[in-house]
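Exam review. A common question shows you a sequence with its structure tokens and asks you to describe the fold in words. Practice with the pair below. Do the first one on your own.
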Amino acid sequence: MDLGIAGKWALVCGASKGLGFGCAQALVREGVNVLIVARGAEALQAAERTLLDDPQRPAAAEVRHVAADITTPAGRAAVFAVRPEFDIIVTNAGGPPPGDFRDWNREDWVKALDANMLTPIELIKGAVDGMAARGFGRIVNITSSSVKAPIDVLGLSNGARSGLTGFVAGVARTTKLASANVTINNLLPGVFDTDRIRATVAGQAAKTGKPVEDIVAARKNNIPARRLGTPAEFGAICAFLCSQHASYITGQNILPDGGAYPGTH
């Protein structure tokens, strides 16, 4: 299927690895020009090389990078200094650390809100009017399955990401945007095979003394698909939401989790 977005420009955040990289790769393979951003310059440059060397990348698709912290005003300014307008934006930031809510102070909450709620809102605010004027725009926010099924030790993430979900539910449905072919949707990943999950599993293994293989097996047993998701398949879902064919999908929370969430909505 031709997604109809070749030649568009996309900003993909947190794109040096994991789910962000999977989204960038899927878009590049569709002929989209991509600006990738992340904090780690070395990993980001390696990601750029991988994307440029991808045999499935159409020759015309450009790849650029900016090493910056997108959660800060300076980081966002650095990105928009390279290119002021985008047709597609994929927001993504690492989740806050787990813990007991009794131990979190105001600074912890503000940091979580800055990264996982306010930064996506700032990117949306800076982009949607231009998208509407041009008659095309796609924004996909990578959030978490914990928005649907909160996890007690991830209170910072539950709160910040749920705030973003509520905001998107309203703004995505404004006539000015929806009628101008501008869509905003959220992707809520379950358990995917990423560095973050591997680090979490390694921490559990160190804490409990259980083998890593046993912890991974237990996780898979809690997923009806009996496996972890891959960044490539996550990226394919993102690319479809960014496509011309997804113009009638907006304000939605898409849950790729292998069937783990037990609810009906």
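Now try the second one, then compare your answer with the model answer below.
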Amino acid sequence: MYKAIIRPILFCFDPEKVHHFTFALIRTISKIPGCKRLFRSLYLIEDKRLERPLFGLTFKNPVGLAAGFDKDAKLYNELSNFGFGFIEIGTLTPKPQDGNPKKRLFRLKEDSAIINRMGFNNGGVEEAVKRLKNNKGVLIGGNIGKNKITPNENAVDDYKICFNALFDYVDYFVVNVSSPNTPNLRALQNKEPLTELLKALQVLNFQKAKSKPILLKIAPDLTNEQLDDIIAIVKETKIDGVIATNTTISRKGLQSANKDEVGGLSGKPLTSRSTEVIKYLAQKSNKAFPIIGVGGINSAQDALEKLDAGADLIQIYTGFIYEGPKLIKSINKALLNKTS
């Protein structure tokens, strides 16, 4: 029903307005008695064989919602009813910011893709914390970044603020230095500043009564030499894993009319490259650390390929928009079929 009826209607309107409309609709419907149970019966598969122990946590299944969809932790409880094993909120920054000027979100229908240049639009970490206090048992990742006005030399301070504010309310952290939509942010992926940032967060982490997993989200546009640096940095800083990958600035092979819009590209065109990055990291490091695979997962087969390449968990975003919540169930069913 989603692809045949709902998606064609939604795709007639501006994507950012549709995003807010859909949030409001899901929130409203979820308040109707019996609807939570209905969603769970339609999309959720509960089976011990799907559980994944990782980072000292137990993921009910390996399919998560990637950061960027529920930036401000407004809908994570309701979204969990669609069958996700975990949900990543953010990217959050210390202070609220509007992000880049609109229009900043573009569908590439012919390519099953999206270009966004949102620019870390969010209400600030403290507002998200208020909502996270209402968590009803959802495993949450906290994706953190820096404010646009914060110069890179002071970026560590922004990440520290977010880390401390979220610590009691998320299950793991993701350090986002790979979005192409905040000026100069990707420069923080360079070996020296990235090592400094992660070490600073680990100092804070180990001061806590019990530390929490820290992961690094990387761009798909890194060279093999840069990926080698990432492997070395993970080893040196002793962070817990990598999320591969964020959106790409590449426009190779696109067919859609708005393919040249500035921003990060997500969706089907990213499928092969993100899988290549996962495979390279897993093989070159001898699977020294866990990897969460994300990028161009539009089918159960795409998900299986990510896992076969070396991912321990996966996340979806653009595939969720194009394929609907059935995608989560189809991936989990494929995993169960593979184990039977």
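Model answer, second protein: The two ends are 29 Å apart (CA to CA). The chain has a mean pLDDT of 96. Full marks require stating both points clearly.
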